[in-house]
Structure formats: C-alpha cells, structure tokens
Write a structure and sequence with these properties.
Number of strands: 12
CATH architecture: Alpha-Beta Barrel
Number of domains: 1
Strand content: 15-25%
Structural class: alpha/beta
Shape: globular
Distance between the termini: 34 Å
Length: about 280
C-alpha cells in the first residue's frame, strides 16, 4: 500500500512560520532563501538541531501549524517578494512529498509570472519521483555513522540516492552535503563519499555544538517521552553541559583534516554558516 506522503489538503502543516534567511550549508551557502520547515521526521539524527520537528502527528491528527495554500501564496508573493529560492526542509520533507507537489503545481498555475526556485534538502526517506522531477535542486544530506540516522541502516538513503543517480534529469539537480563528527569512522565515510560521487559537488561541514544548543537539546529530550518512537532513536550530543566540547577543536582543525586528504575537485570544506551568524539557535536554519 502506498504511503500518503502528506495530509491531502490544500494546506501544509509546518513546524514554524516560513521565514527569509541566509542559507548556511551546501552549494548555495550565503544566499538568501525562504525556509519552509515541516513538522515530522523519522530519520532520528543524533545531532539534530531541530529535534522539536520530529513528532509529526498525535494519533491520526497532524501536529504543527496549518498554513493554507493561500497563506503561503501571500507570503511568497507579497511578504517575501524579493526572495526566489524556496527551501523545503524539516523535519523530513519527503514525508510530505505529495502535499509539496500539490502546492507547487497550484502556485505555478495561479502565478505564472512569479518564478520560484524550488529546492529541497532531504535525507531521502521517501521516494516520490513526480516531486523530484518538479524540483529545481535537490540537496541530499548524507548521514555518516555518528549521526545514527535511520537507526544506523543506510539502505533507505542509498535507495533514494540510487534513483537520483540513475535518472539523467535528476542527476543534474543533485548536490550532497554532510556534517562530520571527529571520529575515524565519520572521517573515512566522508572521504569515501567525496570520491564516490565525483564530479557531483559534496560539501563537508563539522559537527560543532555550543553549550546553549546542548542545554536546549537536553531540555527538549524530556518532552519526547510522550513519543516513544522518537525517544527510542534519541542520542545525546557529543558533550555534556559544562564540559568542553569533545570533537573538533576548531574550524581550522576540521579544514586541515580534509585539506590534507581530499584530492578531487568536487569537495567544498565549509563551516555551518548559521552557527556563526546565529550561535546557539537550535531551531534556526
């Protein structure tokens, strides 16, 4: 039986109100965009900086705030009129693929003179080719071992990547990015992925936690006790409150690790820009 991949309404259930920001990751780092963040994610990354997006429903009712298509149209056309790139993020946006496609088709039919760039960042949980075909760009967030994403099972993400690589149309839209912890397994994984996906661009960025992020993360973990499915996958971040971070000592150390090891032209070694602009903001970009 096919999954619904959304709620089937002319509305989207979002974690927060869409907002303009500066993209902090990947090929388009530093460029303006509008973030549309969904409520709901089953990926379960150990270092997630938006853990409060995980629960997608309670019983059969969606969680998150309901925004009608007309609400979103008003924002995109009038409020954010000067920002063309729309980032679908989460949470995990592929869980709502049919709703996203429905909105894009609805919007473009009503606003033929307002061209938007439709861009999704995803761990690749669900495959819905009609949406992937419609998107302008697809950023696949690769999940190294320390992320514990999908409970450590790479099968789901590998299937999504395979579909994108096998399609000439989708291949041209792809970029990869990954956050790397300071572990031998993560570093090895990162280097292997860079070589594997050459010549497609791969951005590597360090997992860096501020103390304020850890405090908020631990606080929110308590609220997950009502959602055993999510609590089961939760892991604490790499260091405890009040202790020095274990892992990368500096952005320089991270950069030097990959500078000395990467010998392909498809790798970009970057910080997570939003961690610099808005330090400690768990629910930021």
């Amino acid at each position: 039986m096919d999954k619904p991949l959304g709620w089937g309404e002319e509305a989207l259930y979002l974690y927060e109100r869409p907002y303009p920001t500066i993209n902090g990751e990947g090929n388009f780092i530093g460029q303006s965009c509008v973030f549309v963040r969904f409520q709901g994610c089953n990926v379960g990354c150990s270092w997630c900086d938006a853990m409060s997006t995980w629960p997608g429903k309670k019983g059969n009712k969606p969680l998150g705030t309901r925004y009608t298509f007309e609400d979103l149209e008003e924002m995109f056309i009038k409020e954010f009129w000067n920002v063309n790139r729309i980032w679908w993020t989460g949470g995990e946006p592929t869980e709502f693929s049919k709703d996203i496609l429905h909105f894009i088709e609805w919007f473009e039919k009503r606003n033929p003179n307002h061209k938007k760039i439709w861009h999704m960042i995803t761990a690749g949980e669900e495959i819905y080719v009609p949406l992937l075909d419609k998107l302008d760009f697809i950023t696949i967030d690769l999940k190294p071992p320390a992320s514990r994403a999908f409970k450590g099972d790479q099968t789901v993400q590998n299937e999504f990547i395979g579909v994108c690589l096998e399609s000439e149309h989708l291949y041209k839209k792809l970029e990869f990015k990954m956050a790397i912890a300071k572990t031998k397994e993560d570093i090895t994984y990162g280097l292997n992925q860079i070589k594997l996906f050459d010549p497609i661009n791969v951005t590597v960025q360090p997992v860096m936690w501020s103390e304020s992020e850890v405090k908020k993360n631990k606080s929110y973990a308590e609220t997950l006790k009502d959602y055993s499915l999510y609590l089961e996958k939760f892991q604490q971040p790499a260091h405890e409150v009040g202790e020095l971070p274990k892992g990368w000592v500096s952005y320089g150390e991270f950069a030097e690790t990959f500078l000395n090891s990467v010998h392909t032209n498809n790798c970009r070694v970057l910080c997570q820009l939003h961690k610099i602009y808005w330090p400690g903001e768990m629910d930021g970009i």
